[in-house]
Model the fold of this input.
Amino acid sequence: MNKVELNPDSGPAAKFGVFLRGLREERGWTQEDLAVAIGYSPTHVSAVETGRRPPTPRLARELDKAFGLDRVFVRKALDVKDSALLEGFPEYVMQESKAAEVRLFTLGIVPGLLQTVDYARAIATAAVERDSITQQQADERVAYLARRQVNLRREPSPVIHVVLDESSIRRPVGGGRVMADQLDALTAFARLPHSVLQVAPYAIGEARPFDLPVNILTLANRSLMSYAESAQQGHLERDSDAVRPTLTAYYQLQALALSQAESVALISQLREELP
Done:
């Protein structure tokens, strides 16, 4: 049977799985042995080890009993549950920091890579107020974003293509001052020698190929990787062949979007209209 390689950097669930597999193999147990010991199926054990299924509190307690540990798995399961980052995103960011080209599409909000600290904090604070995340998770998101933005300043600089749905620049976030600073940051980004900034106007209607945010990386060896997410789930695609149709759709989106000059003019106009 082929052994699935695990990357603990791909997310909290994968990190849990790597720890579980390592401890199981250290004991000389098969997945079937462990399944019998904890009262779960071998398929369930395999799914947890490969990060395809998050560990539940009950599973974590049974694992602690089987391995004779004092709440080690329980604490690690809580880390998975409490993480502010969706599965696959940490690995995506790691690859983003080395990519030759980065392509982003967002709708509704400015992409994290281009958010000002105040803009990012306003979004995180709103999530706390909705009780979607904790204050600790909000602080983690903002701090993580700041570390990620170092990618813009590295050498050699990656070529960064950004297409913003028009809703991203029209949706007010954080009040007039925060929004003004964010729009100024976008126009400053457009002036960078390695950037391309475009707005996809409402007028393209149903021709817009994406209904969710999409990130596409071209790595130094010209292989491709993509990351897309909904509110509760992230998906990292590492197969270049599987990413190519998404890249083609991105090129089609760029052809429909406003030029960079037109996009900056629209952003500047919205900036002037702010109170």
Notes: The chain has two domains: 8-82, 89-111+152-273.
